[in-house]
């Protein structure tokens, strides 16, 4: 059986319906992990609260544990250029931006213009207006227009489009750069429910990365599953 405690860090309300990972054991393990990780700063907590009060699908936000992981990776890499695909209200962008180099910039792409107000308000509160650039539109159209070489990429937009986004972004990732893709286990359905359409697309994505000679990869069972792919020299 698939161990219930694997998806640590997944928000408890990640899916509307109770699912196979929503157990007392996974809740307690998550609470323990969060209690033994550096907590988010108050601004991130405020953004999380604001997102839950003012958006329809607040569970899309990365949350404290994955947010801390994104910050840690970024702080280790000190990237000059980050690309995020799928900004939502800006939680993960703020986490990733904490590691930017002095002259670093994070580009983030969001198709829903209604989210612009929240993101810009919280980016401003964090004093990062000059470091976080929001592009409103479809990632498939915007990625090709970005004339940058990225050190770090976070894919977190439409799950059916991951393969396309990956193929558009990989040529723009520097050798040694890291790409991370969120939700690749899709609440366990990628493994346990092959009939689910999104699970099928994510399985195809995971298979594609696994077979890709250009990268070395690791599928981490953090939260909803995070694929890490490092571009070979
Ligand atoms: C899971 S949420 C992102 C969460 C955010 N990265 C975080 O952790 O706080 C996915 C976002 O991608 C956006 N999105 C979906 N399809 C997109 C596309 N084709 N291009 C750009 N953004 C897209 C959605 O509107 C949504 O806000």
**Distinct bound molecules:** S-adenosylmethionine
Number of domains: 1
| Largest sheet entry | 7 strands, mixed
Give helix and strand order, one letter per element, not per position: HHHEHEHEHEHEHHEE
Percent strand = 15-25%
CATH topology heading: Rossmann fold
The name of the CATH superfamily reads Vaccinia Virus protein VP39
User: Regions with pLDDT < 50 over 5+ consecutive residues?
Assistant: 1-20
Rg over C-alpha atoms, rounded to the nearest angstrom: 17 Å
Description:
The chain has 233 residues and is an alpha/beta fold. It has one domain: Rossmann fold. The protein is 37% helix and 19% strand. The protein contains nine helices and seven strands, in the order αααβαβαβαβαβααββ. The protein has a seven-stranded mixed sheet, with helices on both faces. Residues 1-20 have low confidence and may be disordered. The protein binds S-adenosylmethionine (SAM). S-adenosylmethionine (SAM) is lined by residues 60-62, 86, 88, 91-92, 109-112, 115, 138-139, 156-158, 161.
Descriptors:
233 residues, alpha/beta, Rossmann fold, seven-stranded mixed beta sheet, 7 strands, 19% strand, globular, binds S-adenosylmethionine
